[in-house]
Design a protein that fits this description.
This protein has 10 helices and 8 strands. With 299 residues, it is of the alpha/beta class. Strands 2, 3, 4, 7 and 8 form a 5-stranded parallel sheet that branches. A 3-stranded parallel sheet has the order 1-6-5.
Length: 299
């Protein structure tokens, strides 16, 4: 025969179980907040329900920033998006290489036309293709630093040792492969500001190079579109004109395919190709020594 518990005893048991359940939920929430001392912590609490994107060598896609020069006298600025010159001089620049197959094709195109350009290279790509960098140097092109992993420097600067790896390690590898340290740097995505640009020059001895012509070739619009945007401009980006620094990328097939017609059209207009450092040097030239030629179309 079963024994029946008194009513007050059942009430006590139920109350005890409810208290225990509430205490367990408080001690171990189902959506814990990352502790502030965690490497993943940010200024805003992140919950476990928020997906965390794993870190990789390549930065997530982001749009190009509008170039912003650091004011200063000719030759004394920390950054350049174009250069005031008295002649038909322009600088073609190529980012994100060297690429194993596309960069050699581009070098063939440039060599055939006796054109010298500036390559802003990634440390990780130089490590993979040092022989291509050596060819670029041997054929008279300038090499600039484009960081190691193509991360936005405005975010890297807040991380301890971030700039040292992205900038210093890349420059060291370029010197090891080519025998010469770079004197110019292009920040990925154009992500910089006047204070950071001055710091890069003061700390690492490199001027920051942006651009005045951007064909958005990294979106692969096609060779014909790339050519038209470089020659005629597009949106807020102007077309080629004296002193222009033209942005492009030697890791996209469409860009390399656009170069023969683009370069030939610029040559036909009377433009002369120089490296970025040569373009900057022309700005420092005395008025009586500065070139006075102007671009003219060939008959």
């Amino acid at each position: 025969m079963s024994r029946r518990l008194p009513a007050f005893t059942l009430t006590a048991i139920v109350t005890f179980l409810l208290v225990q359940s509430l205490s367990a939920q408080t001690a171990a929430p189902t959506n814990p907040v990352i502790q502030t001392n965690s490497p993943l912590a940010t200024s805003n609490p992140v919950t476990a329900a928020t997906p965390v994107i794993p870190t990789t060598n390549a930065a997530p896609p982001m749009g190009m920033q509008k170039p912003q020069d650091v004011p200063g006298k000719p030759g004394e600025r920390s950054s350049y998006s174009s250069v005031h010159v008295d002649g038909p001089y322009i600088a073609m620049t190529f980012d994100d290489g060297p690429h194993g197959t596309l960069t050699p094709k581009l070098l063939d195109i440039l060599k055939e036309r006796h054109i010298h350009v500036t390559f802003f290279v990634l440390g990780q790509c130089v490590k993979e293709h040092p022989e291509i960098l050596q060819r670029e140097i041997a054929e008279g092109h300038e090499i600039g630093n484009h960081t190691w992993d193509h991360l936005p420097l405005t975010k890297v600067v807040s991380k301890e040792g971030g700039l040292t790896h992205e900038i210093a390690d890349t420059s060291a590898l370029i010197k090891q492969v080519s025998g010469k340290s770079p004197v110019i740097l292009r920040p990925p995505y154009g992500a910089t500001n006047p204070r950071l640009s001055r710091a890069i020059e003061n700390e690492y001895g490199m001027k920051v190079i942006l651009w005045s012509v951007d064909p958005d070739d990294w979106k692969d619009p096609g060779a014909t579109v790339v050519e038209s945007r470089i020659l005629n401009g597009w949106k807020e980006s102007g077309g080629a004109k004296p002193g222009a620094i033209i942005l492009s990328h030697d890791i996209h097939k469409g860009t390399v395919e656009a170069m023969p017609a683009t370069l030939d059209a610029l040559l036909a207009k009377g433009y002369k190709f120089v490296t970025v450092s040569e373009l900057i040097a022309l700005e420092k030239a005395q008025p009586d020594k500065a070139p006075t030629a102007t671009p003219t179309a060939k008959p």
